[in-house]
Amino acid sequence: MLFTGSMSLLWLSYYGVSLVVLVAVYFALMFLPRLPRLVLTLAIAGAMWAPARFSLPLIEENEFYTGWAPAAMVSAVGFLERSASAMWGGLVWLLIGMALGALAGVALWRLRRPVERAPARRATARRDDGDRGGDDAPRPPRDKRSATARRGASRGASGEPRRREPVIN
Q1: What predicted TM-score, i.e. pTM, was given to this entire model?
Q2: Mode of pairing for the β-strands spanning 51-57 and 64-70
Q3: Of 79, 24, 34, 86, whose CA–CA distance to 55 is shortest?
Q4: Measuring CA to CA, how many Å separate 27 from each of 21, 45, 127, 128?
């Protein structure tokens, strides 16, 4: 097999497959808004990519095989073997990885959100004499009636809204 002699190739293939899974998860969550989608996707990435140390007893007495593995696998094997120390060791790193992934999702959302801009000021229409009209330009008179009275003015005698007909010039 490809990884029989190389642990680095095993990890490389694991990360390659996990990237495919991560892209599939992102597209599966497209019905969510961007913030929850990024937080969930990167929390799952943190769960997949968080490493943890493990130790397995060998057949011979007092010999152990120690190494690194994904924290989810370390905690799952610890659970299946009913080894509380192995399960909690993997689970702590799994939760740390998920928290860091969620924080990275929030940070990515904050970096990529659109910048809110102040509304653009409208340029005043030019007058016939070429003056642009500044603050001293006359303004149209303001309607001093209340909002309710202004709305009521567009209603007919029976209280129903007046029908507005199109005007053809």
Answers
A1: 0.58
A2: antiparallel
A3: 86
A4: 10, 14, 55, 57
